[in-house]
Design goal:
This protein is α+β, with helices and mostly antiparallel strands. The chain folds into 2 domains: 2-78, Beta-grasp domain (Ubiquitin-like (UB roll)); 86-152, DNA polymerase, domain 1 (Orthogonal Bundle), CATH 1.10.150. It has helices spanning 23-30, 64-67, 75-78, 86-93, 103-116, 122-129, 139-152; strands spanning 2-8, 11-17, 49-52, 55-58, 71-73. It has a 5-stranded mixed beta sheet. The longest helix is centred in the C-terminal third of the chain and has 14 residues, at 103-116. 41% of the residues are buried.
Length: 153
């Protein structure tokens, strides 16, 4: 066990943890930030995507030791129910969620895309989201939501 300080959604948290504990477990189990989902635990589905240093990363594959001291953004830090981020609002407006299990990861991946490329093409969006899995098949609505958010940003 070691002490790690994490900067999550603008707040600092100091915790005693094993260095190799996946960030996903810290977010969900230690801090109660449950918007980040456990999907596969292998970094293949995208449900656990968060932003670290402005990059979209799979939190199930990031050891807490490598996340310490770096700015981490989760869906909870993006917006609130009262004041959603334009990307969150676009997902609502496009009704881009069915079961919504994948949506946190989709939004965080799309957020990373829009940070790098504020005017993505449809092909750019599809490419960026290609490694995020959705079993409900709302991919077309998800792409439209990202396009809508790009117009607003």
């Amino acid at each position: 066990m070691a002490e790690f300080t994490l900067d999550i959604n603008g707040s600092r948290h100091t915790l005693d943890l094993d260095a190799d504990t996946p960030l996903l477990y810290v977010l969900r189990n230690e801090l109660g930030l449950t918007a980040t989902r456990f999907g596969c635990g292998l970094g293949e589905c995208g449900a656990c995507t968060v932003s670290i240093d402005g990059r979209s990363l799979r939190s199930c594959q990031v050891p807490v030791a490598s996340a310490a001291g770096r700015p981490i953004l989760t869906l909870e830090g993006l917006g609130t129910p009262e004041d959603p981020h334009p990307l969150q609002q676009a997902f609502i407006d496009e009704q881009a969620a069915q079961c919504a299990f994948c949506i946190s990861g989709m939004i965080m991946t799309a957020h990373g895309l829009l940070q790098r490329n504020p005017s993505p093409t449809e092909a750019d969006i599809k490419s960026a989201l290609s490694a995020n899995l959705c079993g409900c098949g709302t991919h077309l609505r998800i792409v439209r939501a990202v396009q809508r958010a790009a117009k607003v940003s």
